[in-house]
Every structure is written in structure tokens, then in C-alpha cells.
Automatic annotation (TrEMBL):
The lineage of its organism: Eukaryota, Fungi, Dikarya, Ascomycota, Pezizomycotina. GO terms for biological process: adenine catabolic process; hypoxanthine salvage; nucleotide metabolic process; purine ribonucleoside monophosphate biosynthetic process. HAMAP family: Adenine_deaminase. It comes from the Eukaryota. It comes from Acrodontium crateriforme. Zn(2+) binds at H16, H18, H206, D287. The active site is at E209. This is Adenine deaminase. Its EC number is 3.5.4.2. Residues 11-337 form the Adenosine deaminase domain. Belongs to the metallo-dependent hydrolases superfamily. Adenosine and AMP deaminases family. Adenine deaminase type 2 subfamily. Substrate binds at D288. It holds the Pfam family A_deaminase.
Amino acid sequence: EDFTAFLQALPKCEHHMHLEGALTPEVLFQLAAKNHTTFPSDDPAFTSPATLKERYNHFTSLDDFLHYYYIGMEALVTSSDFEALACDYFQHAAADGVAHAEVFFDPQAHLSRGITYDTVLSGFMAARHRAKTEFGITSELICCFLRHLPASNSLQTFALPSVQASFHNKQVIGIGLDSSELDFPPELFKDIYTDAEKLGLKRTAHAGEEGPASYIQTALSTLRTQRIDHGIRLIEDPSLLHQIATAKILLTVCPYSNVLLRCATSIASLPIRHFLSAGVQFSINSDDPAYFGGHYILDNYLAVQDAFHLSLDEWATICRAGISGSWCCEARKVVLL
Ligand code: ES4
Ligand code: ZN
């Protein structure tokens, strides 16, 4: 049976995509030419968009991907570059039937290159406005902190007046934690999460992607996150799995990402059936679609269907969990439910 039309029509919520991860090799080369950005001369992958795309098929780990991800974003300079990047994502989201998107961005990776926070934010805000008026897609922004940098750098960034202003005026509703996971446990970032909770911000963190299930535990207990990004290694700790099911913590699972970064051997090997039978709430997401085979959210839904042959009822359960676990207003949830 062909589930494409059904899965496209479901009112999907996306909770785990990095806007910088929507930068395709084609747009990367165009922006680099416009902004006079140079690529590493010793890496033949940067010969053309085609060779770069080919290299993206052979990531060996999260860090191997992140190397290209951070080089790629050097081509983003002006507010209109950030707007075009996010518009490109929202166009795909609309075609895939996304109703609501909560998207990540990495301010430290831009501040370190001399790009101001307001340059990034104004571009993304313009794109969000267009997504709402042109496609009816509601969206929220989540500011992520980079765990491979010293926690002091995250604290300084969090405290910037422009960053604090974006929290206060609700242009940014929450914080996340991303980048290299192994050797950077969640508790290193306790101070930011404590401050974020005091400000009434939503909180999530990447955990249990490459790192152990104990990182999921400390993200929940020490950072007091309300969601867990990835969380696939939760399967290694049955008692924690039970606790997460009871607390209705949403996991934001990214099937193609996990396979392409070698965190899972195949989509069929992901613990989707275990999560469903244990009542663990999860959503299905694209993570960095331009880097992961050009697979946006609908491809991820279709791949899960191919691997697990879920029933209409099971899809309804997944879809409702995504709506309930969203950080939009209650009225929007009622409309989507
Ligand atoms: C990321 Cl897949 C993934 N994991 C951790 N950090 C990230 N930043 C962008 N994509
Ligand atoms: Zn991610």
C-alpha cells in the first residue's frame, strides 16, 4: 500500500531540524561566490556541489559531519542569506505537509565569525513571517549552545543583551544543546539551563545520539529538559525508558540522520516498535536535511513506514504525540488535533 499521500496529509510537527542544516551544496557554492568565502584548498570534496554532495554520502561519525557543517555555514553572512536559507527549508516543509516547525539555530557558530546575533535572527524572523503568510506554517525558534566549546562561551552568549532580548520578546522560546556529544556530558551546561528555567524558557538537549543513555538521564535530572533530541540509546536503560514514558517526555527521533552518521546500522534497527509498545512519545524529524541525502521530513516518515509497516492507528498516535509535545500555544494544538 502507498502511504505517501496519507503521510503527506498528516498534520506533522517538526521538532528537530537545524536551520544551518538546510544549506544545500548548490546554495553553499552560490553564497560562497557572492560573499567571497573560501573553502579549504586541501579537500577535493569542495571542487563542486556534486563532489560535496557525494562526500556527504560517506560521513563516518557525528564529528565527521560537523566538520562539513561548520565549514558550510561560513558562506552565510548577510541577513538575507539567513532568510533565504530558512525560506528554502520552509518551502520543503510546506511541500511535505508540515503544519508546525520548531527549528534550531547555532548563534555561537556565527558570532565567532563576526556575524551579529541580530543579523541571524532578523533573517530567520523574516522567513518565519513568510512561512506563516505563504504556507500557513507556524514556527518557533530554539537557540542551541555548542557543547564542544567551553561552557563559559555558552554562558557569555546566553547573557548577550541581544540574546536576552530575543527571549524576552518571545522571538526565541527555548534553548537546546548540540554539536559533539561524546566527552561533553549535559551537566557541564547546568548553569545556563538553570537560568533558562528561571526565565521561563523551554529546554531540550541532544542526548543519547552518539553518547550513552546516562547522558539522557543527566539531561533530564540536571538540565531539567522537557524533551530529548535523538534519545535512541534510551533502549539501553529500561528503567529510564519507563520513567520517560510515564513523564511523557518527547524524544525527537531523526531516522536518516542516525543511519548516515552511523549511530544506527539501518532505519529498521531503530527502537521505533519498542517506543510504541512502551508508550514512549516521539516525533520523526529531518535534523540536517541538506546534509543527509536531501531527505526532508516526509522522506523520514516514509522510511519509517517502509521499515516498520505501521498501522493508521499507530501513525495517529505518533502524530498526536508530536502535537501534544509541541511548544506552540494551546489554541494551535487544538486546531492541529
Ligand atoms: C547535529 Cl545530527 C547533530 N547532532 C548534534 N549536533 C548537531 N548540529 C547539527 N546537527
Ligand atoms: Zn540535531
